[in-house]
Design goal:
Layout: H1 2-30, H2 59-78, E1 95-102, E2 105-111, E3 117-120, E4 125-126, E5 131-136, E6 140-148, E7 154-162
Antiparallel strand pairs: 1-2, 2-3, 4-5, 5-6, 6-7
Length: 168
């Protein structure tokens, strides 16, 4: 029984609301305000759907793609110079064997995984990330690589290769 009373009360309130709306529309027409309701509506702005980003795509994936594009542009810039033999190796596979003076300047001897030796001077490139040798110390070789950070920016990362003494 309560349910019926509530439903009847709801219908009465709905009818009352409709009659009030009709009266307000009639009053608006009587005052000379006879503009159709469509003239008061606002048009949605025009926008290009293709230019909107996908809300479900990962920010890190997009940043990585942008960073790879920046890295590709940088690779194009560096493609004008001749690639050095040590640039085909990952730095983790190279081993610093010796550092000595040759002609008044320090040079280093680096071995690859097959024990083939290479002479490295300051300014040479090595590693897959455009690592440039910046300094040769008495027991280490310092180079700077250009890598992508998580935000997709190219950053310079210093890497140090040190001598491993066999018998101290």
């Amino acid at each position: 029984m309560d349910r019926r009373l509530w439903s009847i009360a709801g219908m009465l309130l709905g009818c009352l609301a409709l009659s009030l709306c009709d009266n307000s529309l009639a009053l608006a027409g009587a005052t000379g305000d006879s503009k159709p309701a469509q003239q008061h509506s606002v048009k949605a702005p025009q926008f290009d759907i293709a230019s909107l980003r996908d809300p479900f795509s990962s920010y890190l994936e997009r940043a990585a793609e942008q960073g790879k594009a920046k890295l590709a542009v940088q690779q194009q810039r560096l493609s004008n110079r001749k690639r050095e033999p040590l640039e085909q190796f990952d730095l983790s596979t190279l081993k610093l064997v010796a550092i000595f003076k040759m002609g008044g300047e320090r040079v280093a001897m680096v071995e690859d995984a097959t024990s083939k030796g290479y002479v490295v001077r300051q300014g040479n490139y090595m590693g897959k990330h455009n690592g440039k040798v910046t300094r040769l110390n008495a027991d280490s070789l310092v180079l700077v690589e250009e890598v992508l950070d998580p935000a997709g920016e190219i950053v310079k990362r210093p890497v140090t290769l040190t001598l491993n003494e066999v018998n101290p």
